[in-house]
Amino acid sequence: MKTSGKVLAEQVKKIGESKVFSIRSPSLPTWCPGCGYFGIHQGLNNAIQRLGLPHHKIVVVSGIGCAGRYPFFTDTYGLHTVHGRTLPVSTGVKLANPELTVFAVGGDGDGLGIGGGHLPHIARRNIDVKYLLFDNSIYGLTKGQPSPSSPVGFKTKASPQGNKDAPLNATLLALSYGASFVARLFAGDPEGITRALVQGIGHKGFSFFHVYTSCVTFDKEYKTWDHLKQWVHPLPAKHDPANLKQAIDEALEDQFSLGILYKRME
Amino acid sequence: MAKVDLTIEICGMSGDGTIAAGGILNEAMSRAGLSVLAFDSYPAEIRGFGRCVTHSRFGDQEMQALSEKTHVLISLDDKESQSRTPFLAKNAVVLFDNKPPSYVEEGTSIAAHVEPDVRLFGMPFTDLAAAASGSTRGRNLAALGGFAVIFGVPPAHFREVIAKKFKAKGEKVLDANLKSFDAGYRYASEAFKERERPVLLLPEPGKDEERILISGNEAVARAALDAGLKLYFGYPITPATPIMEYLAKALPAKGGRMVQMEDEIASIGAVLGSFFAGKRAMTATSGPGFALMTELITHGVMSETPAVIINAQRGGPATGMPSKTEQSDLQAAVFGGPGDSARIVIAPTNVRECYEFTLMSFQLAERYQTPVIVLTDFFLNNRVEKVKIVGASEAQREDWNLYPDESSRGQYERYRVTESGISPRAIPGTEGFLFDATGLEHTEKGRPDYSSEIHSKMTEKRHRKIRGALNDLPEPVEFSSGEAMDVGVIAWGSTFGSALEAVLRTQQEGMKVGALKMMSLFPYHAEAIRAFMKKCKEILIPELNYEGQLANLVGHLHGKDVVRLNRTTGMPMSPTLIYERIKTLI
Asked: Which of A17, B66, B113, B327 has its CA 20 to 30 A from that of B334?
């Protein structure tokens, strides 16, 4: 029996609305009220519902930091590893059982600082892992130190005279490392996250989701909600995600345009 | 007593084909029915300039250690070979090039640098090879032709091995090498009178066809394959790299894959991820890489995730001596890393055990849900032995994971405290058994918890589990001469072979001495070790490290201080050194 696309879409919508596939776990997140991670959680949860992914076929792998706790707040298999090693552990999980959908989650310290050496390699191996980088430009769990994506001049207790080191552009890095799917997103737009994740989960290969978010407790200066809301905007309408050169230009010229920058056509 | 115990060294400069000739010699002597224990003490990490020496001991019985006296020296470069003459046995045979290439300095001939008792056999290796094949490159094979004549080894054995070795390089190369060997053989048959040739009593052929020549590294790789390995993650490092290369070639045919990772941290991370998802995986490294793995190894301890890690020890600390042997990672393997992180550490003492222990490590890792470290050393990894490898039985391949049963579906507790400390482990993809594994201290459900009660209870659970592994770990093996002994020698790793050889020598001389082979380093069989110690007045622990790391580990079981014998020369432990030390204790 052949099911038409329309019928299938309706069935999927119905299942989604039933909340059967909600991945929220009974444990309430330990994040501060107002934390951007709630928005990311909602975005990911909705994507999984929309796709109807069975929970037992999902593994969420994390490192250390506020984002490291993520697996405990999802009703899936979870592997909370050590600081910075999310991507190699995810590689092992995915290669061992390709039927699993593997999400790697972590902050900017975990993914660009201590674990920065792993991103190029999972990208060039094109391992089918979905990596969400929660980028709030600060070390939150250790109560506010500058991170590899903090701007120059950023003041914290560990940088009282202002941060001296230039920030990394995670989207640009992922593109130049050869990631086959790259999206830039905003925690204040869960629906945008869901839409990009639905596309990225369907993509066979390493998928990088650079999510801008705010640390409401330790950053009163830079990536505040007010600032982020002013800064972010959609990618230009003419942007062609099949064009790597265009994606790199976009990542270089505009740090805050959101959407799917690049998707390699196989 | 052994009828044949012959040690042969080939010495040359890099580029002389020394290592190749050694390999051919080992294989040919093996085909002639002899046991083999061989070690190439090549000088540098890569083939560059420098002295190459192959050291092969052949016998009609199984051998435990290298010999300290050389009976035959085949010199491909007389200037370099002079460094080997102090190790020559009485009446040793020296086979040398009596018409070396023109660039060789005059007056360097080895003939002028040996004791008068040495039996010299000179022949023009270079000229013979050049005349036979048009190139001097086959001079190492011309030398082997001469050796075959002098010791009466059937040339067919050599020709077969040469054919096997050079087949892939094309007919021209193969033909040139065979011709060089034949030229050497013909020349020596005429030049050396039969009555001047030593007599070598070869065993009857065909009686041990099941044994094969294999290195420790190859044994490890084959065992992993036989255990059903699906994924290997690694990073190049001396002396473990050959394991990775072997598996890169062999795994695809078995539906598996070798992934060369970006570093050792990534390698162990991927191994843990793979076991977490239910597939056997492995990594192999040496000291520097092992140090990098430490944090994730303790994550395996805390999250109770299996892993198999081969640590092929080399000289340390830091980069140390990549191409030298040492046993100085014991403490790092047993105790390395943050916190109370008990894990299983086993150490093979010969090539056969390299196979057996690697094979068993996968089941141990699964049953005890822990990283298992197989601690080898440069000498073990690189030496070649003739051993019988029967392969893995059905039972040895069996899955030792303990899965949760149906009754816990929906209310599964991943870290349930049990009597054995082993909690059933669900594999992702299984419906109804979701859990989180974490490196944080956690409750039985796997939720983070820092309470005094939980940390005490869970730490105890993890240690109880590892202690329980003693039942499945290789017990110490005793080689005692009676119930009351003057000296007991306890040894581990490749040093055990030297210790046993020394102890057997003292036993033959009527001394009351025993040896204890320790293979399980953690947990260890304290009762068996104590029982052995009780029989001995003195306990001697020889090790290739500075302080005595095994002595630090088990010395406290003895009623008084143990005697330590430590060497950090980068070379295998000398049996004579142990023998002499034993004598001073009696």
From this structure: B66
